[in-house]
Design goal:
single chain, mainly alpha
Amino acid sequence: MSVDKEEADQRLKAAVHYTVGRLCQRIGEEHRREFCRQTVAAIAETTFRECDTFAKDLEAFARHAKRSTVSAEDVKLLARRSTALSNHIQNKSEELAQEQRESRKKSSGKRKSRDTEEEESKE
């Protein structure tokens, strides 16, 4: 592994560890519990490894489909291992699709009204 890759991995691990620590702190405050350092470190390491596995799987799914870009369908395929995660991602995907449809309707409505205004001004 090159020095740059090792350095990037260490930065990512540090960022994941920091984020996990903050989440554990917040959850601990909400539930009046404390997480020892070893627990936070174990959760952070597990999270990092799982994300690394997810990234490799997503790349493999895209490559198998002869694409260079990971798609939402790849993410849904990955999430099938966990019913709760799969349901959550499916719901989010549907929400995003609905928002995109609504924004397209709004922008096409604006275009129509502009076209109508231009036609009226010509008359």
